[in-house]
Specification:
Blueprint lengths: L3 E5 L8 E12 L6 E14 L3 E13 L10 E4 L3 E5 L3 H4 L2
Parallel strand pairs: 1-2, 2-3, 3-4, 4-5, 4-6
Length: 95
């Protein structure tokens, strides 16, 4: 609660992660395969394949959902400003 985190691929592979009133600074590829209840009061650079739960954020730069890897219906994304949605991470699009 009430934390500030800066991370590359942060909060990944975590069961029952709860974050309330938190800021994510320069955080990319967040929440991969995590079961999450997150309330983020800042921009998240990118969210990648959240496993299940709810992600609430002020802004998401890129939401990456690989439908062949996760079931998108298991995660609720609550964000009014998602700049880009994609089905592959950037490094895979360049290959």
């Amino acid at each position: 609660m009430n934390c500030t985190i800066e991370s590359l691929q942060g909060m990944c592979y975590i069961d029952n992660l709860v974050m309330k009133n938190c800021k994510l600074v320069n955080t990319t590829l967040a929440f991969e395969y995590s079961n999450v209840d997150a309330e983020i009061t800042s921009r998240v650079e990118s969210v990648f394949n959240p496993g299940s739960g709810v992600v609430r954020a002020e802004q998401i730069g890129e939401l990456i959902i690989e439908k062949d890897k996760i079931d998108p219906a298991r995660t609720q994304i609550i964000c009014k400003d998602i700049e880009q949605k994609s089905d592959l991470p950037e490094w895979m699009r360049k290959a």
